[in-house]
Design a protein that fits this description.
By secondary structure, the chain is α/β, with parallel strands linked by helices. It has twelve helices and twelve strands. It folds into two domains: 60 residues, DNA polymerase, domain 1 (Orthogonal Bundle), CATH 1.10.150.530; 263 residues, Aldolase class I (TIM Barrel), CATH 3.20.20.70. Helix 6 crosses helix 7.
């Protein structure tokens, strides 16, 4: 059971199992847990008063022990490409950003799993801002719900590519994604929910034992140890060798294929040597490579690769049998693209 930050997040500090255990601890019948989950994450009410099929005494008890707070949108920025970025505030004034990306009848919501991030990747705006606090399951869920409400559209996909490292807040992240996946919640298919990690091995291992088929993405960004250590110092202790074998085990256990995120940075990870190392790393393992253009980050010395480099990388990878996509970035004009989300207080 996850029960982080109950003072700050109240009832939203609980994951699905936490709600079941809460009801047990209050000697309420089992079906009450389902009802409460539906009110909170299906109907998404903002007060216990609205939970009309729960006994008054139970509502009063809950109100007293675990208040019901709701996050609110304080700012929306709209991109030319229809992407919208939201600044969202919690009851303790902590703020995070979430992004909504509509395309062809789909709505992808990109959520933050922490306020800030402690991993310190050199190319990422979030990493430069430092870490404030972990988010609770219901707080992360609120981001998804607020974006869906603003678009007036069903959420079809979720990615944890906002602020924060999901595997540094594993239980709460899984809790939020379960609420999104459950039929009492948003009923978003598990395969349409992607967890993106910078490569925390314990998280990869744990994810392979979960019953849901969530999709795994790993921020690779270099297959040369010295380069990766420089641009991703927070994961230097998890060497590329260990990362690779964790992913091979993950695929063996789940039958699923992880994807790699690789943002091409001029002169850093886009040289022929880096390309060969990437091809070597990806060959003979189940994976899919997403080549991303580096998004602009304030005060950063890194520049995106020159034209044509992504195509060269893609050709070399495909020749070696590695499935590869060159991904267009969305929302960069509103600083809402990958790695552009900064902390505001
Ligand atoms: N902490 C997790 C998830 C959030 S970062 C992770 O690192 O995977 C979301 C994605 O944006 C990651 O793939 C990250 O590597 C990428 N990213 C960070 N900064 C970027 C930038 N400046 N340009 C393009 N992608 C970036
Ligand atoms: Fe954190 Fe991910 Fe940014 Fe690295 S890329 S600093 S892990 S949010």
């Amino acid at each position: 059971m996850t029960r982080i930050l109950p003072d700050i997040a109240g009832i939203k500090s609980l994951d699905p199992q936490g709600i079941v255990e809460l009801m047990e601890s209050l000697d309420a019948p089992r079906f009450r847990a389902k009802q409460l989950q539906e009110w909170l994450y299906g109907k998404r009410v903002s007060s216990y008063d609205e939970m009309t099929n729960l006994p008054k005494a139970l509502r009063a008890q809950l109100e007293q022990d675990l208040p019901l707070y709701s996050a609110k949108v304080v700012k929306v920025a709209k991109s030319k490409d229809k992407t919208r970025k939201y600044l969202i505030e919690y009851s303790d004034s902590t703020m995070v950003e979430a992004v909504g990306i509509p395309s062809k009848g789909r709505l992808t919501v990109c959520i933050s799993t922490q306020a800030g991030c402690s991993m310190g990747c050199a190319f990422c705006a979030t990493g430069k801002g430092g870490f404030t606090r972990n988010l609770a399951p219901g707080e992360m869920f609120d981001q998804i719900a607020l974006v869906a409400d603003d678009f007036g559209q069903r959420v079809t996909n979720i990615v944890s590519m906002g602020q924060g490292e999901p595997f540094m807040n594993y239980d709460a992240t899984l809790g939020a994604l379960r609420f999104a996946n459950m039929k009492e919640g948003l009923n978003v298919g598990a395969r349409h929910i992607t967890i993106s990690t910078c490569g925390i091995l314990s998280g990869i291992r744990k994810l392979s034992t979960e019953s849901e088929q969530f999709t795994l993405a790993v921020s690779l960004h270099s297959a040369v140890q010295a380069t990766r250590d420089k641009i991703m110092p927070g994961v230097a202790k998890f060497t590329l060798d260990r990362l690779r074998s964790s992913l091979v085990s993950y695929s063996e256990a789940t039958g699923r294929r992880p994807s790699f995120e690789y943002a091409l940075i001029n002169g850093i990870n886009d040289t022929p040597n880096e390309r060969d190392a990437l091809v070597e790393f990806c060959s003979k393992m189940l994976c899919h490579v997403n080549l991303i253009g580096l998004n602009r980050v304030p005060e950063s010395r890194f520049k995106p690769s020159k034209q044509g480099v992504a195509e060269e990388f893609a050709a070399a990878l495909r020749k070696a049998g590695v499935e590869t996509t060159i991904r267009a970035s969305k929302g960069s004009d509103i600083a809402g693209a990958c790695g552009q989300l900064i902390q505001r207080r």
